[in-house]
Design brief:
The protein is built from 14 helices and 18 strands. With 363 residues, the protein is α+β, with helices and mostly antiparallel strands. The strands form five sheets. Strands 1, 4, 5, 10, 13, 14, 15, 16 and 17 form a nine-stranded antiparallel β-sheet that branches. Strands 7-6-18 form a three-stranded mixed β-sheet, with no helix packed on it. A two-stranded antiparallel ribbon has the order 2-3.
Length: 363
């Protein structure tokens, strides 16, 4: 680990330290500047494109939640990542059936996910959230699921414990134009000529994508005006923020300092490791050639200064911090159908009520 980063960390964790580390990284489609790429589509909305007051259109290319879900699995052992990174966190899997396991690093709601409440991990997770609600101590959460602290967690279906994201990443494209595309499906043969159905049925249903024959691919169907991607005339920018204020607020009893350094180490790794730019079909992005993104430290006064930060240095610091904190144990726990069925009925109402009461008293 470099001495310079160690000195930075000491400053960042001091009461008067900087408020955040931020990165603006310009991206481009693999086809190059001006290439067409496809943002995500959402139900009843299509592309999420906002129009600013000056008429500029800004498209969400990858949301905060989506970015978190892409980054978190890098800590899973054997998931195509680096085992050195995986060693930084406990490897806890839930056994669904013989030979079938799911890592909790794949759980969308992290330690507050339904799969946690439906397993032998339920009691430990509830105890960890209860400790946080009772005294603000997040160390038990860090021993079970430290990435829940890095990317945020809300135990909304049980204790109501809520912790903010420390690492936030989002990709937006600026000054975009929306494109459409059309296609024409033509069946391989004329099925009406083979008397599978009449010419009258063919004429009636051809061209209607909702007709039974069209749905099964027996008649010609046009597809017009479908989403055709976007072109960005402005930059495509990945904005990454590490919230240092939230890191400093983490409590872990006598181990508070070790906890903060450990979680900051994980946050630095999550923020600096290169990401796979394949976001979805038609959206393969890479860092823009010739444009170097730099990490910036933002002081509480608003002052900004560049800081040297890279993946290798972040890993080295994180490994040292993880050893000092002592990473939680690896475990394999069983999925329990009975717990899942109870949860579907609303869970243990008595315990939930007590947890909510404690959360309310905390406020």
């Amino acid at each position: 680990m470099s001495t310079s980063l160690d000195e930075h960390v000491d400053r960042w964790l001091s009461p008067t330290g900087a408020v955040a580390l931020v990165l603006k990284q310009e991206l481009e489609p693999v086809e190059g500047d001006g290439g067409v790429f496809f943002p995500p589509t959402y139900a009843d909305v299509g592309y999420n494109i906002d129009k600013l007051g000056d008429g500029t259109q800004v498209a969400t290319v990858d949301s905060v939640g989506s970015q978190a879900n892409r980054i978190e699995p890098m800590f899973e052992k054997g998931a195509g990542g680096d085992d050195g990174v995986a060693a930084l966190v406990p490897q806890i899997e839930i056994e669904i059936a013989e030979g079938r396991r799911v890592s909790i690093l794949r759980a969308g709601h992290r330690l507050g996910d339904a799969i946690i409440r439906s397993s032998e991990l339920k009691a430990d997770a509830r105890a960890a959230f209860a400790a946080f609600l009772d005294s603000g101590d997040a160390s038990l959460i860090a021993k079970l699921a430290p990435t829940s602290l890095v990317f945020g967690v809300w135990d909304s279906r049980d204790t109501q414990a809520k912790l903010p994201r420390l690492v936030q990443s989002v990709i937006r494209a600026w000054d975009v134009d929306r494109l459409t595309r059309s296609a024409q499906y033509v069946p391989a043969i004329d099925y009406a000529a083979l008397e599978l159905f009449s010419e009258e049925e063919k004429a009636k249903q051809e061209g209607d994508p909702k007709s039974p024959l069209a749905k099964r691919g027996f008649v010609a169907v046009p597809a017009t005006g479908a989403h055709g991607g976007i072109v960005a005339r402005g930059p495509i920018v990945r904005d990454v923020t590490i919230n240092l204020v939230a890191v400093r607020r983490l409590q872990g009893g006598q181990a508070s300092e070790a906890l903060r350094r450990y979680i900051l180490g994980l946050s630095l790794v999550a923020a600096t490791e290169p990401l796979d730019g394949f976001l979805r079909a038609g959206c393969l992005l890479v860092p823009k050639a010739g444009v170097k993104g730099s990490w910036v430290e933002v002081a509480r006064t608003g002052g900004r200064s560049e800081v040297a930060l890279d993946a290798a240095t972040a890993r080295a610091f994180a490994a040292q911090a993880a050893a000092a904190f002592v990473v939680g144990a690896d475990r394999v726990v069983k999925f329990d159908p009975k717990l899942a069925k109870d949860d579907l009925k609303g869970g243990d109402k008595g315990e939930k009520a007590a947890a909510k009461k404690a959360a309310k008293a905390k406020k």
